[in-house]
Design a protein that fits this description.
The protein is mostly beta strands and 71 residues long. It is built from no helices and 6 strands.
Length: 71
Amino acid sequence: KRFRLVAENSGNKLARYELSGRDEEQAFKYEFGTPAVELQPGEKRIIDLTVRRKRQLFGFPTQPPFEVVGR
């Protein structure tokens, strides 16, 4: 599934973030259009994200929650 994220620097200094995704079951693979982003003060940027579910071998398909983290 494809998503579009908005990264925004509302501070007054340059901000740099390494992006990653995570979920409790480790069921997804995360592909960011840009895995790291550097933003000037007041700058916004749209980042593409594709989330793919790893193959589920057993049970009914589920949609566990996931989150995107910038550090």
